């Protein structure tokens, strides 16, 4: 037999191999159409950096725990490595929550850069390649939280984060932030002249994230894009119709890109402007209702003015520890949830304690019964009726 | 008219005056037979020193707050003043929770006494008369709790405490402790040769507290008598059939009267003995389930052995602050309540945060609906049926 005789067969095999479909669906939850959908009738439980009250922030484990505990959305902060890979990490420096200090091979990377007008010294993520970042181990930020997972987990990429959401047994939304875009674009360059915001949206599209708020596509893969930088939000609104949230910092912090004050960006005219680009705002909760002597003071009208413009309000951040709970709440995080959900009527909450918020919502506003529960209810009704007919 | 003529009338008036009944009941809730009764179907919410998470412990305000928040029982520690008045106060010294240091007129009263084998220096309640104690002002024990009521409230007497319970708009039980009876009997003498325990029971009987657990009389005015000193409990069981609870301290602390170790008083034979005198035990919760590295370890069998002897278990003390919450509970006090109530199966809980325990119980095991709720239920049922008939 000559090679020439075999070639057609090889060609045929290649053709078949490349066009063949699996005889059965591959084991993946991504095409599972029977997944429990996302709830949309009560405020969103947004797992701030994952369930970081229990597990070091922004790790795969923290996100999986949050999904277990009932999060509607898992939230993350996106920065970029030296080689332009989008990663999940909150601080621009690695000092506070990784073991960078123990990595002598990186000792020479310490730098001082200006970040949002302040000189910061440390080991910056933008000076490390992804491979180098992956050699680090994350630790719990707060000393009073569980330290047992320190040194066990590594930093994950934006794509790894997305996979965790897509592989969940029910529909779980993602809530990524374009973090420090001004600083990232100064320090990291991508080929093709792309910017941080371009790569951010590219990644979302690669995994099929698209669609406006509550659209059919969106409900299959819910996502909110968040940022403190209004120009970044405006920029990406040309590229995706995914809903965006405008984050608002403390009253002393101007925006990093437009240098506008808190008062300006929360004014009626600014809200009128930004509402064409975002579906809501994400303010620091102690600016929505100022605090003095650890007691709540008179609430501002920010929520009312936002709601009047059809803007959702997702304040940050709710924490269980009594040092973060104002005295009005009797050191009970559930009282705080009760107040913000039922009195202030926010539309979503960034929480470090996904499980606690889920408990509160399940106990006080449980999801409507589905078909299975309906038959249980009918049995209950029958019992009640028979009890009543006795008396 | 002579005086002699008037005397019969005066006599008549006196007769009428002394035997007359009010034409309408006096405004008091003590005879109100329509008071909402105490619940007995789920573990007791015992307001440990009142709602002292919010308000300084053992004050009238702390007790009233606890009643507002839904306590089943208000708990107190009974000590005695120099002049033998029974007061509500936890420590034998006034230093930690009062402004005694600012009272120069009492500066000379500082002493050192041996209390349960340890030398203690300070201003002892037994060296101060009631009138002098009343001139003091109480403050919040823990610096991380609300300090705004410091200096506002005074120490109250056992009788004032009882009045607060009896005047409540629903049936609220009392849970007083014969505190440090050995020390009190050493330092305070009563004129009629009576002992601390005698005066304690006398006070209860004066206000109509009597009856065994769950008896008709008991349900009208529920009460538990608690003590760390077994001989005091045995002593008073001759005087009253009110239910008693045997408190158990940490594993290192012997009983103050019989010098028996933790291991002895929790042994099978001791429980067999004490069960003829008490209806339950009140252990420190970290001895029921030991703790290491802020994680729960393997539970002991104490609860099982108590329940096997029909002894209730009321552990102390549940607190919201994360420093008191073991990591298993994700810094969520409600997870702790869930575990102890549903997994360990305790019968009552001493809590510093009455409102939080009440929330948890109301949301996860609400009281059965009464007649008013039944008609609401029927309306709900009608709605559900009509919805179902549509589909």
From TrEMBL, chain A:
Its EC number is 3.1.4.46. Residues 43-361 form the GP-PDE domain. It catalyses: a sn-glycero-3-phosphodiester + H2O = an alcohol + sn-glycerol 3-phosphate + H(+). GO terms for cellular component: vacuole. InterPro entries: GP_PDE_dom (IPR030395), PLC-like_Pdiesterase_TIM-brl (IPR017946). One of its GO terms (biological process) is lipid metabolic process. Pfam families: GDPD. PROSITE patterns: GP_PDE (PS51704). Residues 1-20 form the signal peptide. Keywords: Glycerol metabolism, Glycoprotein, Hydrolase, Signal. It is an enzyme of class 3 (hydrolase). GO terms for molecular function: glycerophosphodiester phosphodiesterase activity. The keyword Signal applies. Belongs to the glycerophosphoryl diester phosphodiesterase family. This is glycerophosphodiester phosphodiesterase.
Automatic annotation (TrEMBL), chain B:
The keyword Transmembrane does not apply. Residues 1-20 form the signal peptide. It catalyses: a sn-glycero-3-phosphodiester + H2O = an alcohol + sn-glycerol 3-phosphate + H(+). One of its GO terms (molecular function) is glycerophosphodiester phosphodiesterase activity. GO terms for biological process: glycerol metabolic process; lipid metabolic process. Residues 43-361 form the GP-PDE domain. The keyword Repeat does not apply. It is an enzyme of class 3 (hydrolase). Its EC number is 3.1.4.46. Pfam families: GDPD (PF03009). GO terms for cellular component: vacuole. Keywords: Glycerol metabolism, Glycoprotein, Hydrolase, Signal. This is glycerophosphodiester phosphodiesterase. It comes from Escallonia herrerae. InterPro entries: GP_PDE_dom (IPR030395), PLC-like_Pdiesterase_TIM-brl (IPR017946). PANTHER family: GLYCEROPHOSPHODIESTER PHOSPHODIESTERASE GDPD5-RELATED, GLYCEROPHOSPHORYL DIESTER PHOSPHODIESTERASE. Belongs to the glycerophosphoryl diester phosphodiesterase family.
């Amino acid at each position: 037999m000559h090679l020439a005789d075999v070639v057609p067969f090889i060609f045929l095999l290649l053709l078949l191999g490349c066009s063949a479909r699996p005889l059965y669906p591959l084991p993946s939850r991504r095409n599972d159409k029977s997944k429990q959908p996302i709830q949309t009738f009560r405020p969103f439980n947004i797992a701030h950096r994952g369930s970081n009250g229990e597990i070091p922030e922004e790790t795969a484990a923290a996100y999986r725990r949050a999904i277990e505990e009932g999060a509607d959305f898992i939230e993350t902060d996106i920065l970029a490595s030296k080689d332009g890979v989008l990663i999940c990490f909150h601080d621009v420096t690695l000092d506070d929550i990784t073991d960078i200090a123990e990595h002598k091979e990186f000792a020479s990377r310490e730098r001082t850069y200006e970040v949002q007008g302040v000189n910061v010294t440390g080991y910056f993520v933008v000076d490390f390649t992804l491979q180098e970042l992956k050699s680090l181990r994350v630790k719990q930020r707060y000393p009073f939280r569980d330290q047992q997972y320190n040194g066990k987990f590594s930093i994950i990429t934006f794509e790894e984060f997305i996979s965790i959401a897509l592989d969940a047994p029910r529909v779980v939304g993602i809530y990524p932030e374009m973090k420090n875009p001004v600083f990232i674009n100064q320090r990291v360059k991508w080929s093709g002249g792309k910017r941080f915001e371009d790569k951010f949206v590219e990644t979302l599209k690669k995994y099929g994230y698209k669609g406006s708020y509550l659209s059919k596509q969106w409900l299959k893969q819910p996502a909110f894009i968040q940022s403190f930088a209004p120009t970044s939000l405006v920029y990406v609104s040309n590229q995706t119709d995914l809903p965006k949230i405008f984050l608002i910092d403390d009253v002393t912090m101007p925006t990093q890109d437009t240098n506008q004050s808190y008062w300006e960006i929360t004014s009626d005219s600014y809200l009128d402007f930004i509402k064409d680009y975002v579906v809501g705002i994400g303010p620091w909760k102690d600016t929505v209702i100022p605090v003095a002597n650890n007691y709540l003071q008179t609430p501002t009208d920010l929520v009312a003015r936002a709601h009047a413009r059809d803007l959702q309000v997702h304040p940050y951040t709710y924490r269980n520890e009594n040092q973060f709970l104002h005295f009005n709440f009797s050191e009970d995080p559930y009282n705080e949830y009760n107040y913000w959900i039922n009195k202030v009527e926010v539309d979503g909450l960034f929480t470090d304690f996904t499980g606690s918020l889920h408990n509160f919502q399940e106990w006080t506003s449980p999801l409507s019964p589905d078909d299975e529960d309906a038959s249980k209810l009918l049995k209950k009704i029958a019992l009640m009726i028979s009890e009543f007919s006795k008396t």
